[in-house]
């Protein structure tokens, strides 16, 4: 069973960068099934885009929290290269992006971000190569990428019904 065209959010740090060859296959399998991939991450966008190109990871859009708030003047940059964004702004940015752009599911490794999501949120565990959706369903990323996409489709069909 294949469900409608999906918009799938993927985090970079702690997800894609832990298994880039797998997520290359995952993004290719998803797009071949008519789904869209959105990289939703902390940033910076230029460095992440370079990494994604290098690995051949396909995506429709890249949202970087750092770049977004920098354009709004909400980032304090320090001489040592570090920066600060208000925790509430930072921790809710991915959830707000997903809601605004109708992302169907977001895969991320941070439980703190999941607290503000209304979108289905899949908490990724890189050691087990799986993620748990809404503390109920598991997507197994040890399976071939196409099978993981099919699992994701079935889980979202169950959630929406």
Protein model, in words:
The chain is built from six helices and nine strands. With 161 residues, it is α/β, with parallel strands linked by helices. The chain has a single domain (7-160), classed as HAD superfamily/HAD-like (Rossmann fold, 3-Layer(aba) Sandwich), CATH 3.40.50. The strands form two sheets. A seven-stranded mixed sheet has the order 3-2-1-6-7-8-9, with helices on both faces. It has a two-stranded antiparallel ribbon with strand order 4-5. Helix 1 packs across helix 6.
Topology overview:
Blueprint: E1 7-10, H1 20-32, E2 36-41, H2 45-55, E3 61-64, H3 65-71, E4 76-77, E5 83-84, H4 87-100, E6 105-108, H5 111-114, E7 121-125, E8 130-133, E9 137-140, H6 145-160
Parallel strand pairs: 1-2, 1-6, 2-3, 6-7
Antiparallel strand pairs: 4-5, 7-8, 8-9
Number of helical stretches of at least 4 residues: 6
Distance between the termini: 14 Å
Q: Strands of the largest sheet, in order across it?
A: 3-2-1-6-7-8-9
Query: What's the architecture in CATH terms?
Result: 3-Layer(aba) Sandwich
Keywords:
two-stranded antiparallel sheet; alpha/beta; 7-stranded mixed beta sheet; 9 strands; 6 helices
Summarize the structure.
This protein is of the alpha/beta class. 40% of the residues lie in helices and 22% in strands.
